Amino acid sequence: MTLKAVDARRLVEYVCERTHSFFETELAIPHSHIEFHFSDVQRLTLDFLTSILAVEGPVRVMFAMSFDRELAEYSTAKYTEELEIPKDELHLYLEETVADIINIILGNSLSRFQLEGETITLSPPVVITEAKNIYRHKDAHFFTADVKTKKGRLQIFCIGPRELFDCKLDYLQEEL
Q1: How far is CA 134 from CA 29, 68, 89, 112, 171, in A?
Q2: DSSP E strand stretches across 57-137
């Protein structure tokens, strides 16, 4: 089933609802403003840290959460507030935190999107640390949400179809 065949808008909205709830309960970020972009998204701009998961099953897409530095550092500080972290290991904790966040949020929100008799599975999260741009090829679809909080910014990307991308959101074929 392709991304066009499912309600991509609803899928992204479920993820954003869960993100808002997670931010409130787990990170003590009380309010976030979410701006959706469901049509004609031509380019994705990845930020400081981006966690990526592949969704497999009847809906085959990639989800990415791109954290600005402020939100990644705040989230890590909240996650690890009872730990003493050596400065030379902070980058590892930053990456583990953003990987854990996408795993929890997508795992919980995609359960609402189960299709009758079908199972949706998630790949392990991959984190990339490079800021880069991804331009939409003709066969790709990008659906995005921009989440702004007092603690920083998160961009949520739903990218499909899954078959066009590797685990770091690079196109598998140069010319599509």
Answers
A1: 29, 17, 29, 29, 9
A2: 61-67, 121-122, 126-128, 133-135
176 occurs within a structural domain: no
Q: Is the pLDDT of residue 92 over 80?
A: yes
Q: At CA 55, angle to CA 12 and CA 121, rounded to 5? A: 120
Average pLDDT, the chain: 88
Specify the residue for token string 């590797």. 166
What is the spatial distance between Cα 133 and Cα 157, in angstroms, rounded to a whole number?
12
Q: Is the pLDDT of residue 69 over 90?
A: yes
State the total domains in the chain. Answer: 1
State the pTM of this model.
0.90
pLDDT at 1: 45
User: Is residue 54 situated within a structural domain?
Assistant: yes
Question: Which of these, 148, 102, 147, 153, lies nearest to 127 by C-alpha position?
Answer: 102
Q: Cα Rg for the chain, rounded, in angstroms?
A: 16
- The CATH number covering residue 7 comes to 3.40.1550.10
Model confidence pLDDT, tens digit, residues 7-27 = 778 889 999 999 999 999 999
Say if CB 38 and CB 156 are below 8 A apart.
Answer: no
